[in-house]
């Protein structure tokens, strides 16, 4: 269009009209839920994701065979399938698919879709592949029956299956978009590009927009086979923690997921606040491998360190809502040990243990991650507090800050004499923590070799295969008590998960698996 | 050979200048690929640890698949040779953190930053030059003193702090600025042409989207502009003072030309050469230094992308960002030299 003088005269009017629309648009659209979080997100492909934000946004899109309700991670609930029947040897798990289940394109969810989805997770060899290590999936003898078999007894398997990474995808759609579940899918599957633009799940929402730097938009699945979703649209935005609180207070968003405990006071009058222990456990270890450090490997020295730490002081640093588990399993999981069972500060006892060790004026390197925080808690603060505690009993800790990228290499190689680190659960079952045993993956990082604590290993062996829940919990209790006595690990605290939600919503619950259940959020009742 | 030389010198000076600068620029880019590649290799830390989950990083099969997918299983010289070979075809490799081609990532994030930096630059030039001229005219009087304080504050205030304070005041307290991001939550972006939302919305005639995009850019652009306003003000003042003391300015005044004409046509024009130099450097600095502003205003630009890439040891992304920023620096510098010739005809290019 050629611009005439008349056209130019119209421009300011058009500009004014557009600005008026802008001011009007500041108001939130009804039917839209806006959630702010600092993204930890790499992909929208369930078979390749293993990040907290991916769990949050993919849980409403891809349903799993079984699920959890609310914040309870100890009780399995049916989803696409029934709660499984488990064989007495804990090697065979039988599920029955719900015949009503449908994908967003209206096609039914079948056993073939389940087999495709699980084999794809295994064969693309992404971060969640380990969840199905040693698992074979097959059709059962009846229609809609799925049978999972494991090489080793694995009573914790059903708890892994609720992970959104094991969400069931529409095999036909994914195959049509360069997806593969065959051997070699790590080279041939290119469906991650498709998953960034669309979805192929059976959940109450479908993916409308996936911008991993800015926002993920979910749209109501009109063909959903269950109860109708509460919102037409859910927008999950990538927002720096500094702005999240203000956004909720101004009504620009309804939920802020990454607040620090100290921010909650300012917002509690205008929004619901929640500060509960998160599922990550911050722990320390003194390396049991004398080749790494003779000082750290000394059992009496380890005991002196354990008794020297002011656990209550550390909990204060962690802030309101943080908790201290009795051992390595976090408080919300079955098998968690009460706080009272954990080590307690005893300065005189620490001095006596140090004297018994025969090490005079010990000096030890204490390494910590310097460039990230855990739920707002700086590891530098934790390390400084521990340094002061150790000084009181005569141990000199040389603080060694390290960027996370180099820290992880050294930590995993087992070369750190003493460190503060954290463990986030891979799945909500105590069996995830058996890795802390002697000769196991995390145990080896602390120099705890196989055969050095046969009693601990023996209890772990029994706990790994026990399917009776009461006996299982008792075994994990016993295992952790021995771990506290004989192992190089000491759990310090679980950082608090602190969030705020608008009073225009019903109060929101925390779930350690997907942070919050977006499908369960509802407007406040009038 | 003689023919080539004759043909070369037969070309217009300007064209010879551009061709020469582009050739040197290409060599410079090659050097930058080498330096950035070497740096990513010497940084302690393994991309496997930074990108795979704890369990996956301990599984040799998964680690092998990861290394194979990103070419990390090749010898280092071969990795570099392969990178260059792909680069010639416009392929910057695949990002380990986004699982997408780096070119796709850059085409999404770079326009967001260019849009932000351009808006900031326009603000900085308009305000900085105006304040600088005013300060020079009112030398050592109260307007000059006030402007000196303003420009000093501009270059001294920490950007992150300023971003938080402006967001608090204009969004939270006064409610006259929109929230974070480039558009309202869930807002539809205009049809993608440049990926700069204000421009794309204008091109598509989507006035409402244009207004929303413009309202979202104002605050972060203003924060980003503050430092540059300070430096442009100071340089303009100094250059104007020098111009105003020249004989030809005195002659113009003596001839009875209006003050406005003397200032704008006789004094400001020669001063512009210095201002253009500062502006060119400032634009490059803005492109590579927006991370803090992008972080507070949740602006999905190249600054945040670079920061996250560095944390994840995403080698291809780091190299892609380095290369693109270098190319922009080179182009901006060339543009500055060309503008010199336009501003001051005495300058000969070639």
Notes on the structure:
Chain A is of the alpha+beta class. Chain A is built from 18 helices and 20 strands. Chain A has helices at residues 5-26, 52-58, 111-123, 157-160, 171-175, 185-188, 192-195, 241-250, 264-267, 294-297, 299-308, 311-318, 347-357, 379-392, 404-413, 441-445, 454-465, 469-486; strands at 32-37, 66-67, 77-78, 85-86, 92-96, 135-139, 145-150, 205-211, 215-220, 233-238, 255-259, 271-277, 281-286, 363-369, 373-374, 377-378, 396-402, 418-423, 489-493, 496-502. In chain A, strands 8-9-10-1-11-20-12 form a 7-stranded mixed β-sheet, sandwiched between helices. A 4-stranded antiparallel β-sheet of chain A has the order 4-5-7-6, covered by helices on one side. Chain A has a 3-stranded antiparallel β-sheet with strand order 18-13-19. In chain A, a hairpin with a 2-residue loop joins strand 15 and strand 16. In chain A, helix 11 (299-308) packs antiparallel against helix 13, helix 12 packs antiparallel against helix 14 (379-392) and helix 17 runs antiparallel to helix 18 (469-486). The N and C termini of chain A lie far apart (52 Å). The relative contact order of chain A is 0.14. Chain B has 350 residues and is an all-alpha fold. Chain B folds into 2 domains: 14-88, no CATH class; 102-348, MetI-like fold (Orthogonal Bundle), CATH 1.10.3720.10. In chain B, 76% of the residues lie in helices and 0% in strands. Chain B is built from 16 helices and no strands. Chain B has helices spanning 2-10, 13-42, 47-51, 54-57, 60-69, 76-88, 102-137, 142-156, 159-173, 197-203, 207-244, 247-254, 259-288, 291-296, 302-311, 315-343. In chain B, helix 7 (102-137) runs antiparallel to helix 13 (259-288), helix 10 crosses helix 11 and helix 15 packs antiparallel against helix 16. Chain B starts with a helix and ends in a 7-residue tail after the last helix. The interface between A and B is large, with 60 and 58 residues.
């Amino acid at each position: 269009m050629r611009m005439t003088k008349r056209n130019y005269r119209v421009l300011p009017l058009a500009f004014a009209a557009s600005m008026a629309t802008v001011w009007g648009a500041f108001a939130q659209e009804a039917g839209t839920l806006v959630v702010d979080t600092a993204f930890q997100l790499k992909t929208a492909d369930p078979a390749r994701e293993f990040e907290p934000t991916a769990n949050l946004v993919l849980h409403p899109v891809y349903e799993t065979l079984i699920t959890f309700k609310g914040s309870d991670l100890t009780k399995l609930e049916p989803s696409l399938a029934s709660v499984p029947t488990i064989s007495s040897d804990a090697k065979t798990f039988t599920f029955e698919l719900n015949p009503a289940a449908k994908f967003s394109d209206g096609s039914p969810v079948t056993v073939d879709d389940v087999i495709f989805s699980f084999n794809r997770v295994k064969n693309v060899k992404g971060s969640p592949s380990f969840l199905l290590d040693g698992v074979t999936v097959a059709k059962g003898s009846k229609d809609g029956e799925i049978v999972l078999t494991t090489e080793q007894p694995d009573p914790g398997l059903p708890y892994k299956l609720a992970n959104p990474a094991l969400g069931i995808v529409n095999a036909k759609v994914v195959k049509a978009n360069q997806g593969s579940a065959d051997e070699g899918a790590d080279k041939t599957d290119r469906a991650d590009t498709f998953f960034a633009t669309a979805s192929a799940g059976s959940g109450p929402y479908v993916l409308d927009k996936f911008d991993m730097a800015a926002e993920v938009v979910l749209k109501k699945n009109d063909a959903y086979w269950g109860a109708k979703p509460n919102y037409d649209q859910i927008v999950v935005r990538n927002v720096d923690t500094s702005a999240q609180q203000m956004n909720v207070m101004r009504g620009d968003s309804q939920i802020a997921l990454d607040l620090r405990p100290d921010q909650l006071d300012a917002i509690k009058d205008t929004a619901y606040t929640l500060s509960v222990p998160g599922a990550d456990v911050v722990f320390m270890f003194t390396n049991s491998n004398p080749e790494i450090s003779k000082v750290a490997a000394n059992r009496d020295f380890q005991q002196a360190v354990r008794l020297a730490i002011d656990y209550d002081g550390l909990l204060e640093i962690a802030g309101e809502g943080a908790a201290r588990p009795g051992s390595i399993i976090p408080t919300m999981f079955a098998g968690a040990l009460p706080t009272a069972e954990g080590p307690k500060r005893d300065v005189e006892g620490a001095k006596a243990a140090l004297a018994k060790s025969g090490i005079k004026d010990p000096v030890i390197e204490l390494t910590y991650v310097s460039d990230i925080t855990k739920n707002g808690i700086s590891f530098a603060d934790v390390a400084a507090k521990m340094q002061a505690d150790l000084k009181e009993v005569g141990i000199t800790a040389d603080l060694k800050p390290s960027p996370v990228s180099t820290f992880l290499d050294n930590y995993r190689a087992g070369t750190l004499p003493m460190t503060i680190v954290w463990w986030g659960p891979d799945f909500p079952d105590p069996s995830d923590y058996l890795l802390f045993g002697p000769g196991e993956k995390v145990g080896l990082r602390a120099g705890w070799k196989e055969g050095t604590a046969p009693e601990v290993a023996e209890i772990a062996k029994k706990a790994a295969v026990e399917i009776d829940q009461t006996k299982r919990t008792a075994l994990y209790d016993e295992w952790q008590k021995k771990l506290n006595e004989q192992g190089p690990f000491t759990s310090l605290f679980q950082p608090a998960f602190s969030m705020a939600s608008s009073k225009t919503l019903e109060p929101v619950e925390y779930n350690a698996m997907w942070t919050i259940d977006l499908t369960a959020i509802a407007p406040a009742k009038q | 050979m003689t023919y080539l030389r004759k043909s070369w010198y037969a070309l217009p000076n300007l064209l010879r200048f551009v061709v020469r600068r582009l050739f040197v620029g290409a060599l410079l880019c090659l050097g930058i690929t080498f330096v950035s590649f070497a740096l990513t290799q010497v940084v302690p830390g393994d991309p496997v640890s930074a990108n795979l989950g704890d369990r996956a990083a301990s599984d040799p099969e998964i680690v092998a698949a990861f290394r194979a997918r990103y070419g990390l299983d090749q010898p280092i010289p071969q990795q570099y040779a392969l990178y260059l070979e792909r680069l010639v075809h416009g392929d910057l490799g695949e990002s380990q953190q986004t699982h997408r081609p780096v070119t796709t990532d850059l085409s999404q994030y770079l326009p967001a930053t260019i849009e932000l930096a351009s808006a900031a630059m326009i603000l900085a030039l308009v305000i900085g030059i105006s304040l600088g001229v005013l300060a020079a005219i009112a030398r050592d009087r109260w307007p000059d003193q006030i402007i000196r304080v303003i420009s000093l504050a501009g270059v001294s205030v920490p950007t992150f702090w300023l971003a938080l304070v402006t967001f608090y005041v204009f969004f939270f307290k006064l409610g006259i600025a929109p929230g974070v991001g480039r558009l309202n939550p869930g807002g539809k972006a205009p049809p993608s042409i440049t990926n700069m939302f204000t421009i794309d919305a204008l091109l598509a005639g989507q006035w409402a989207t244009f207004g929303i995009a413009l309202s979202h850019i104002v605050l972060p652009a203003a924060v980003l502009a503050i430092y540059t306003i300070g430096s442009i003000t100071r340089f303009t003042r100094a250059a104007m003072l020098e111009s105003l003391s020249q004989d030809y300015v005195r002659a113009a005044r003596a001839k009875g030309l209006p003050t406005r004409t003397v200032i704008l046509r006789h004094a400001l024009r020669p001063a512009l050469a210095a201002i253009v130099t500062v502006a060119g450097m400032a634009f490059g600095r803005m492109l590579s230094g927006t991370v803090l502003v992008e972080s507070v205003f949740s602006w999905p630009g190249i600054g945040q992308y670079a920061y996250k890439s560095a944390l994840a040891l995403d080698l291809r992304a780091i190299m892609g960002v380095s290369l693109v920023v270098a190319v922009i620096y080179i182009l901006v510098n060339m543009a500055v030299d060309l503008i010199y010739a336009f501003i001051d005809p005495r300058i000969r290019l070639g």
